[in-house]
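Try this one yourself first.
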């Protein structure tokens, strides 16, 4: 390893104690005292490492190490410092502390870098009042106007502050993010590093089937316009079709029956359909297929309303290659794979080259106090990040 694994793990563990409550997990949402304490801890580490530290007006923290050619745009590396309520200590901070360790290693060993390196800890990735990836969307200039002064004031921010946090994309050469996988893919296959090729898009629809309420005892079966039975048959058909596909996943996670009584044939069924894929066109085709099955139901009137559309994001091929070379150099196993969760790399990919590195999540558990990645895997990920930064510096 080129990094100091012991130093990195000790610092990472110390950061993981800020906001940790035994038996409950991490209590460190953005815009809280615990969050500020965690950010201060990172600022201190950056200062000690000799980085130029600054915090923007939404609370993103940056530590900059000048490269040999300061006219070049900078390589950014990091992740987020906030956590979901009762979450773990790995989701986010791992990528920030690994980027800090990479900067320390490069400085200490005098490894040459043309580009400046900026270690970044984004704020409010996990959502809340202003939606997910808030800090990185502010940085990328993707927060939609008009900004709500009221909502921002609730967390001590202003629209002017948000606007001033927007970066000049020409000052950014690329963005690299180490993150836990948050799924079981790597662990099940015994592979050490995942190289995400893209971040899946998410689309959601509100679907309704409306039939006729009637007496559940006296209405002959063939005369019923049973919305629940129609929905069940529709979903059976749909899932039989989706089982033959491997380029998207879908979920019906919420379903409600109306009026919802034991003795009444259901008049209406409402449910949400969620489709995720690495390709927008695949999400569109799947939704069209669902609509055709839905509209073929004869005994009910139907509706299907799009409510969420977040396009899929391709991660940069050059950075995927840089991570792959880093893995080859370090002699670790790797696989290219999609990312099923969203990350700060998503907004960043809209303004610059973005790449990610995944390390295994034990049992695929995340957003839980039981989230765990072994110290060996954490250190290995940080080492690959440091090598990939150097590789990107050479090839950009
Ligand atoms: Zn995360």
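Now uncover the answer:
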């Amino acid at each position: 390893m080129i990094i100091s694994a012991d130093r990195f793990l000790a610092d990472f563990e110390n950061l993981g104690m800020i906001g940790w409550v035994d038996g409950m997990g991490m209590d460190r949402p953005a815009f809280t005292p615990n969050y500020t304490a965690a950010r201060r801890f990172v600022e201190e580490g950056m200062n000690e490492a000799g980085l130029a530290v600054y915090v923007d007006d939404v609370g993103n923290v940056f530590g900059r190490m000048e490269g040999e050619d300061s006219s070049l745009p900078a390589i950014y590396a990091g992740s987020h410092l906030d956590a979901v309520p009762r979450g773990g200590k790995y989701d986010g901070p791992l990528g920030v502390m690994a980027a800090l360790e990479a900067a320390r290693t490069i400085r200490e060993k005098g490894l040459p870098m043309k580009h400046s390196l900026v270690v970044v800890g984004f704020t409010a990735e996990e959502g809340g009042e202003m939606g997910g990836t808030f800090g990185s969307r502010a940085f990328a200039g993707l927060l939609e106007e008009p900004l709500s002064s009221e909502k921002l004031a609730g967390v001590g921010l202003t629209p002017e502050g948000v606007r001033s946090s927007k970066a000049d994309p020409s000052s950014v050469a690329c963005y690299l993010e180490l993150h836990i996988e948050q799924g079981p893919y790597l662990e099940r296959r015994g592979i050490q590093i995942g190289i995400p090729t893209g971040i899946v898009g998410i689309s959601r629809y509100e679907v309704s089937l409306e039939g006729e309420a009637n007496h559940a005892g006296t209405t002959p079966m063939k005369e019923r316009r049973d919305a629940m039975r129609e929905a069940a048959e529709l979903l059976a058909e749909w899932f039989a079709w989706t089982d033959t596909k491997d380029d998207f996943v879908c979920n019906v996670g919420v379903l409600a029956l109306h009026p919802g009584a034991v003795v009444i044939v259901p008049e209406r069924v409402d449910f949400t359909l969620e489709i995720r894929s690495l390709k927008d066109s695949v999400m569109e085709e799947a939704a069209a297929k669902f609509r055709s099955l839905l509209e073929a139901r004869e005994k009910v009137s139907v509706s299907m309303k799009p409510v969420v559309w977040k396009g899929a994001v391709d991660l940069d091929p050059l950075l995927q290659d840089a991570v792959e070379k880093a893995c080859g150099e370090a002699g670790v196993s790797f696989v290219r794979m999609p990312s099923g969760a969203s990350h700060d790399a998503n907004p960043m990919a809209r303004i610059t080259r973005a790449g990610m590195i995944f390390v295994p999540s034990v049992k695929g558990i995340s957003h839980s106090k039981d989230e765990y990645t072994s110290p060996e895997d954490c250190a290995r990920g940080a080492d690959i990040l440091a090598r990939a930064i150097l590789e990107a510096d050479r090839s950009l």
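Discussion: The longest helix spans residues 375-395. Residues 221 and 265 are 10 Å apart (CA to CA).
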